[in-house]
Structures are given as structure tokens and as C-alpha cells.
Amino acid sequence: MRSIAILGSTGSIGTQTLDVVRQHPDEFRVVVISANNNVDLLAAQAREFGVREAVICNESCLGDLRRSLSGSGVAASGGIGALCDAVSAPDVDIVVAAMVGFSGLRPTVAAIKAGKDIAFANKETLVAAGSLVMGLVKEYGVRMLPVDSEHSAIFQCLEGAGGNPVRKIHLTASGGPFREWKREDIARAGKDAALRHPNWSMGSKITIDSATMMNKGFEVIEARWLFGVPEEKIEVVVHPESVIHSMIEFEDGAVLAQLGCPDMREPIQYALSYPRRLSLNNRKLDFGALQALTFSRPDMDRFPCLGLAFEAIRRGGNIPCALNAANEVAVDAYLRDRIGFYDIAATAEVVMEGMFFVANPTLEDIFRTNLEAMEMARSKIW
């Protein structure tokens, strides 16, 4: 039985991880869970799964969490420091890194340094500090098991590659809600339209990132670090059916692909049970019902955020961190109806251009860049 800590248990990945645990109570037990603000759901999850500790990252909510857990036997704690301590405890085997945004970096690093395997769904951690994090993974001998459907697909394909070199990685993208919209219509689109993703049910931040295709750009950066492949060998292809989750291509032109229904529980479960495959109560592919699988190249004019991500990884250093920080601020502003859709890309581009470049950043440099980039983005918006 594997003991699990879930960073971000009340979010989309976290709740689906708990559903996997419900289906396999003899395989997994949850010992630590965390949330940012959602005290009620966190407390309900803690009671249902009998966890050792529940951590609320927003320390101002700690009193409410303690009252909600009174008499349950579950320890309640607050703050990122407490979360770092909780995931480093000896009874944790694997950490599901599902926090949204840059906030996941510090506890993920703490878990790696404590020798924990990581089921990785917090792409912003690798966007901001990929070289440093993967260096720690190697130094401490832990496994970084991808949870994003695209990176899980690549990981699974590489398992069948027989050690043969990969010529190219093909990352698939749904195209989001604006795939067929004209640029002038996208420019006027409000958050309600952007949040209507055609295939996936996700949190609001990642759904907006999908609409701008920044999410796909971040996945390019994530793939570069997870699989040690330079960005020129990573290609994005729009595949609106979301059946093929990604592909790898070999030198002879042969391509391996991983297919499945759009259900995040499959890659979550594979990361938790790897290398075994367990049964899963989910919808299975019906090939007879598949009428077509279509593909096209992404439009960088309508979706400039994708191009910005490629530019950030080419420039390297602390620039991807600056891009991520600016995007977090701009997406939040868009969700608050303060800026327009294309202002997200414009803000990110200005911050990238104005950021002081650090070629080989330390973790301290990364945290400093994140703060400075966020302040720069806020100054452009507010």
C-alpha cells in the first residue's frame, strides 16, 4: 500500500486523485492533504479518508480548519512551511503535486529533498525552475512521474521505445474554446466564453491558459525538462478530439501514440501505481464510434502565448519564470474582468522584455524573479 500526500486536494487533480483512491482502498491511503482556502471541502476530505494531517496554506483560515476538524483526530496546520514539513514525513511514499501556479515549487522541492517520488501535475514548477528541480530529482534519486495527460502519454510511449532515440515529440492540443474563432472575435471574448472548454473539466486558471494556449506552451517547457529533449524537437499539433494524448516519433519515421478518453483519472492512477496498471471505472474508447481524428498546426497569430513560451525556453535562464509570473497576474486580472483576452499575452511579453536576465539562476534567483515579474505585471495592469 502506497501512502500519498496530495498538494491541492480540493482542486480538479486533487479531487480526481481521491476518486482513484476510493476505487483502490487496498492499494493507496492518503496521509496528508492540503488546500489554499477551501476549508469546508478540505475538512470533509480529511474526515472521509482519515488523513494524518490537513494543511491550509492560507494561515488566516487555520482557526476555521481546526474547528471543522475538532474531534476527528486529524491534525490541522497552516502555511507553506507546515506543508513542506508534512510532505517530508517518513510515512509519505509519493506526493501528488497538484497545486496551481508557482506556489507549488517550495513544497515540491521539500518533498524531493526528503526522497519522495512525485506524481507531477504542477507544470509551473518546471516552467519556473526546470533545470534546478530536475537536478534535485537526479541528486536525490526520486522518480518524477507525469500526471498531465500529454506528458503521461509521452512517458508511456517512451516505455515502449526500447531505448531508441526520439526524433521528435508531438504534443497534442485541443485548441480550446476559441479554436475556430476569428481573431477579432477572440479579442472581444469575456471569461465566460473562455471558461467553456470543449473537452476537459479543469480549474479556472488552467482553463484560461488552455484558451490562450499558454498551457500548451508551458507543456512544451515541461516536456523539455521532463524528457531532456530540446525545444526544437517538440512540436505542437492541434487535435480537437483529445483522443490521442501525445506521440513520439523515431528516426525512421515510425510514431508511437497513446490514446484514451479525456479523463484525468487514468494518468493520475498510472503515476500512483507505476509500473502496474490497475482497473479503473472510467469510459473506455469505442473505436467503432470514432468517426474521425483530425489534426492541424496551431495559429501563432491568434494564440501568441504559445509563441511566447517557445521564446522563453529559447532565451532560458530566469525568463520562463518571468513568463509564468506575468501570466499568473494577467490571468487573474482577466478573470476579474480588468483586462481583455489579448492583454494576457501583451502583459507577459512586456514583462519578459523588461526582466533582468539571469543565465544560471539559483532557487533564490527564481523566487526573486517571480516577485519582480509579478510586480512588473501588476504595474502594467493596475
Shape: globular
Structural class of the secondary elements? alpha/beta
Order of strands in the sheet with the most strands? 4-3-2-1-5-6-7
- SSE pattern: EHEHEHEHEHEHEHEHHHHEEEHHHHH
Query: What's the overall average pLDDT, rounded?
Result: 95
**Relative helix content:** 40-55%
Strand tally? 11
Weakly predicted, low-confidence segments: none
Q: How would you describe what is shown here?
A:
The protein is α/β, with parallel strands linked by helices. Helices cover 47% and strands 15% of the residues. The protein is built from 16 helices and eleven strands. It has helices at 12-23, 39-49, 62-68, 80-87, 105-113, 123-140, 149-159, 183-187, 191-194, 204-212, 214-227, 265-273, 304-315, 319-335, 341-354, 363-381, and strands spanning 2-7, 28-35, 53-56, 75-78, 94-97, 117-120, 144-146, 166-173, 234-238, 244-250, 255-259. The strands form two sheets. It has a seven-stranded parallel beta sheet, sandwiched between helices. It has a four-stranded mixed beta sheet with strand order 9-8-10-11, covered by helices on one side. Helix 5 (105-113) runs parallel beside helix 6 (123-140) and helix 6 (123-140) packs antiparallel against helix 14 (319-335). The longest helix has 19 residues, at 363-381. The mean pLDDT is 95.
Features:
382 residues; alpha/beta; seven-stranded parallel beta sheet; four-stranded mixed beta sheet
